[in-house]
Amino acid sequence: MTTVKTYLPSQATLEREWYIVDATDKRLGRLASEIAQVLRGKKKPEYTPHLDTGDFVIVINAEKVAVTGKKRTQKLYRRHSGRPGGMKTETFAKLQDRIPERILEQAVKGMLPKNSLGKQLFTKLKVYAGPTHPHDAQKPKELKVSTIPGEEN
């Protein structure tokens, strides 16, 4: 009886790329799912579900991300202090005024695995509210993300 060996890429052979995404007028959920796939490495030939084979992603202009319908006023973000009665809620619009990076971070984090691998993958996401970022030395490539069917940006 022969056993089939699963190919496991070593961390030394993995090439980590840096990608940059401009979130201006991109749909939140569709953008987050594309970013999560790149962080996970799902489009790479050496993808392995239980290993970190993904790339780094830089998101700029996070304050200009778009949502459809009434989500701007009705979508709620909750956080809890851990104390009784410590639940704080705020709408999408208020959180976008206060900390625009957190909206995209929470959307991507929800699409990653809920374990230590997900925490490790999440550290490779860098989100910035404005158009500048401190990662020019990594020479990031532009990642093409179309969040509306038929639109290529």
TrEMBL record:
Biased composition (Basic and acidic residues): 133-144
Molecular function (Gene Ontology), one example: structural constituent of ribosome
Signal peptide (UniProt feature, chain positions): none
Keyword Plastid: no
Highest taxon listed in the record's lineage: Bacteria
One GO CC term on file: cytosolic large ribosomal subunit
Gene3D superfamilies, alphabetized: Ribosomal protein L13
Assigned keywords, A-Z: Ribonucleoprotein, Ribosomal protein
Region Disordered, residue ranges: 131-153
Gene Ontology biological process terms from the UniProt entry: negative regulation of translation; translation
InterPro entries according to UniProt: Ribosomal_uL13, Ribosomal_uL13_bac-type, Ribosomal_uL13_CS, Ribosomal_uL13_sf
Family classification: Belongs to the universal ribosomal protein uL13 family.
Main function: This protein is one of the early assembly proteins of the 50S ribosomal subunit, although it is not seen to bind rRNA by itself. It is important during the early stages of 50S assembly.
NCBIfam families listed in its UniProt record: rplM_bact (TIGR01066)
Quaternary structure and partners: Part of the 50S ribosomal subunit.
Protein name, UniProt field: Large ribosomal subunit protein uL13
Species this protein is from: Nostoc commune NIES-4072
Gene that produces this protein: rplM
